[in-house]
Each structure stands twice: as C-alpha cells, then as structure tokens.
Design brief:
By secondary structure, the protein is α+β, with helices and mostly antiparallel strands. It has a single domain, classed as Phage tail protein-like (STM4215-like, 2-Layer Sandwich). Helices cover 24% and strands 41% of the residues. Strands 1-2-3-5-4 form a 5-stranded mixed beta sheet, with helices on one face. A 3-stranded antiparallel beta sheet has the order 6-7-8, with no helix packed on it. Strand 7 and strand 8 form a beta hairpin.
Length: 172
C-alpha cells in the first residue's frame, strides 16, 4: 500500500490519541476509530478524520492540517441533568488529554480544539434512543517530509529511466 497522508494520520495521530484516551479512562470507556457510529456499551468514544487540508507545500515537505472529530456517546435512561453532568465531565477530561498531547515531535504539532457541540445528532445517531453526545472538533498540523530521487521519463513496464539517466527495475 502506498504511504499517503491518510495512512500517516492514522498511524501517527489517531492511533496515538486512541492510546492516550484508553489509558485516561482505564479501559472503562471503549475508544474506536471509524467513520460510522457503532454501539459499544452504553458509553464510548469515536475518532474520525473529517478533512485533510494542504496548508503549505514546499520542496521536500508538505504541511497538512487535519480536522479530527472526537464523538463522545452516552446512553443513559436516568435523570437527564445527571447524564448531562457526566457527559460534560467526560468531555472536559477528553479536552484535557488533547491539551496535554497537542504536540508530538515531528509527527504532529499545534493541536487546538476548534469547537465543541452538544447533542447534535447525524445520520444513524438519530435512531438511537436516550443517547446524549458531545462532539469535539480538533485540529492538528502534520508535516510530511519526503525525498525526491528524480522524475521518471520513460518506461517499458519493467525498466524506468529518471531525469538523471539512472535506471530502476520494478520486480513483480
């Protein structure tokens, strides 16, 4: 598989946030990465990349801004004010974890909470009874460094010639 900004985001950001959040809640609150809502116990977290935007491309480096959505789901039948207090408490804890991990060396930096929404349901979330949710929109910047070895000029499906007349052989 080709190494893309999506793969890089999953490996260097989402999986790290998943680990941070799992350890924060000691396994009591399941954390998964996915595009769709999945019922996992009564309370759980979902991480998802909304958008990857190229904000500054230079020679041998690309700088992307990644908009991450962290949805916190809470299914409680009891008192709504108690449930809202619990949801607010979990949201504050998640926001604190994000604040403490807003920078990770060369993987990502400049993490910021863009906004937080409460009880705005989308698609299949609307079908779930007694569900309360909060959604944190979080932005990080990710540098992608690469090396340029030359441009391919000619090919006969096996031999590739670059701009500096070096030959590459592709074996299948």
């Amino acid at each position: 598989m080709a190494y893309s900004s999506t793969n890089y985001t999953y490996e260097k950001v989402l999986s790290k946030f998943q680990t941070f959040l799992r350890s924060e809640f000691g396994g009591a609150l399941p954390v998964y990465i996915g595009e769709e809502y999945e019922k996992t116990r009564n309370s759980h977290l979902r991480l998802f990349v909304n958008q990857i935007t190229d904000i500054d491309s230079k020679h041998k480096m690309i700088l992307n801004q990644v908009d991450i959505e962290i949805s916190i789901y809470l299914n409680i039948i009891s008192n709504k004010s108690i449930a809202l207090d619990k949801l607010t408490d979990i949201t504050n804890r998640v926001e604190q974890v994000l604040y403490e991990n807003k920078r990770d060396g060369s993987n990502y930096f400049d993490g910021q909470v863009a906004d937080i929404e409460f009880n705005i349901k989308n698609d299949e979330e609307e079908l779930v009874d007694n569900m309360m949710l909060s959604r944190i929109n979080y932005n990080v910047k990710i540098p992608l460094a690469y090396k340029l070895f030359g441009f391919f000029l000619d090919s006969d499906n096996k031999n590739f010639i670059t701009a500096n007349n070096k030959k590459f052989v592709i074996l299948n």
